[in-house]
Amino acid sequence: MILFSGNRNNDGWSMIVQPEVRAMEGYPVVLPCTFSHPQHSQHSSLQVLWRLGHGQDATVLYRCMSRPRAPTCEPGPKQDQRYRLEGNPREHDLSLRIHSAALQDSGRYYCRVEVQGREHISFEDKMGTRLRVEAPPKILALSVEGSKQSGYRALCRVQGSPLPDVQWLSPDELLEGSPVGPLAQEAPALYHTVSQLRDVEPGQHYTCSASNPLGKEQATLYVLPPRPPPSSGAPPSLLLLLTLSVGAKVILLVGMGVWLMQGGRVSCWRK
Question: For the Ig-like domain, which residue ranges apply (predicted)?
């Protein structure tokens, strides 16, 4: 069942919006907004605005002007093409379409209509529509850091909404990882988490598994064992090999993102 909220005043204005809309990352989404107004404004120019947030921190995402007898509501020359008006203001429909929703689009949106003329009249929904953009887990990076003296740890950076649950696995058992944080409380950080696995041992496989209600993704890391020291007595080159391998793995993560999202395994290896 879809619920709508509405605002009405004593001048004959009313506005109906949907309190919450859910969307999948990468797909379009429409935020419904309809209104009614006194008949005398039918022959006036109407300006439509959509804002993300309220008050001084609000960002105007979309603005267009609907003139009498004009077939469309014309946006400004610098309008972001990700947003367009799905409805027709002359038919009392201000619904906004967002192309290819991103996790950062989540927030509360407000629609507003202004009647241009001698008496500048405006009406805005006060409750707003909360947009929730959801996404299955995606493993962004898998790495190893540390030294022989301090020990090695594996790090797994994951994205998703709802925020994924992260587990570490060895070939034989479930391992105990821990979150790394706190992350900065910026919008992107709300959908990212980093998990660490301490006491990583060379010569072993470790799998990072991320899951939320929308799906599951895994990536496996193989930690290189140290080379035997050369006759000159130089120290084993484990750290150098790990650094090179991690670098190659990160390039693989970036260049083969589709392969990884389909459940491929990522390993570090010696060339």
Answer: 1-122, 137-222
Neighbour count for residue 238 (Cβ, 10 Å): 17
Nearest to 144 by CA among 217, 203, 222: 222
Q: Please provide the CATH number assigned to the domain covering 135-261.
A: 2.60.40.10
Residues in a beta bridge with 240 = none
Tokens of 98: 């967002």
Residue range 17-45, pLDDT digits in tens: 999 999 999 999 999 999 887 665 566 78
CB-based contact 84:65 (threshold 8 Å): no
Where exactly does CATH 2.60.40.10 map onto the chain?
Answer: 5-127, 135-261
φ, ψ at 191 (rounded to 5°): -115, 10
- C-alpha to C-alpha distances, 177 to 156, 172, 174, 200, nearest whole angstrom: 10, 15, 9, 11
224: nearest Cα among 206, 208, 245, 197: 245
